[in-house]
Design brief:
Structural class: alpha+beta
Distance between the termini: 55 Å
Strand content: 25-35%
Number of strands: 14
Number of helices: 5
Strand order of the largest sheet: 6-5-7-8-9
């Protein structure tokens, strides 16, 4: 099945002797594929389904390495902590990958390359601000996201290594909290962008 200006969402056919790559027997075969991602995207675009968000993902992991062990481990930890996470596996340019995240309004992108593997750290891009930063824990406690009332506050920052909460955004109020230490240098300059955000919030309340 092909949707005009969108491409195939369902296809199939016979694949005679495809199994010969795995066995000496000659076996007939048929196959079918359904592009669920593009199908639901189009259904949402046509208002045939009711979706409040373009994507259920809170985090998109972009591996820049062939070894997927670390990306999978991070995705698993985030999912265990109730954070919807997907891994981008298509072989495309980095710009196209960010465009995908922007199109689906995925708020956070985690980039994992060779440097991140060596240092056992990851780069995080805040898609709302476009900033990429490395953070480290400097505390011995964290807020349990499951204890939050979503009508009051929602997670704003998350440690992608262990899934712990790093800050909150309060619903309907110009209030946010942050609980991490950016590594650029000691002092207030570390979190300069947070002060910029705070000043914008103050201006809005005038």
């Amino acid at each position: 099945m092909i949707i005009e200006n969108f491409g195939s969402v369902c296809s199939g056919g016979r694949y005679e002797n495809l199994a010969q790559y795995y066995t000496d027997k000659k076996l007939p075969g048929v196959g079918i594929s359904i592009g669920l991602t593009r199908l639901f995207y189009k259904l949402n675009e046509l208002n045939l389904i009711n979706a409040n968000k373009k994507s259920v993902s809170d985090v998109l992991i972009i591996p820049m390495v062939e070894d997927l062990k670390m990306p999978i481990e991070i995705a698993t930890n985030l999912r265990k902590n109730g954070i919807n996470t997907e891994i981008y596996l298509n072989n495309k340019k980095l710009k196209a990958k960010f465009k995908y995240a922007n199109k689906l309004e995925i708020p956070n992108v985690v980039i994992i390359g060779e440097d991140e593997l060596k240092e056992n750290k990851v780069k995080v891009k805040d898609m709302e601000t476009g900033r990429v930063y490395i953070s480290s824990q400097n505390h011995g406690y964290a807020v349990n996201p499951e204890s939050l009332d979503p009508k009051v506050a929602v997670p704003a920052f998350t440690n992608v290594n262990d899934g712990t909460n790093e800050g909150l955004k309060y619903v309907g109020k110009n209030i946010f909290t942050v609980q991490y230490h950016p590594e650029a240098c000691p002092g207030p300059q570390d979190s300069g962008y947070l002060f910029d955000r705070f000043l914008r919030m103050m201006e809005e309340e005038r």
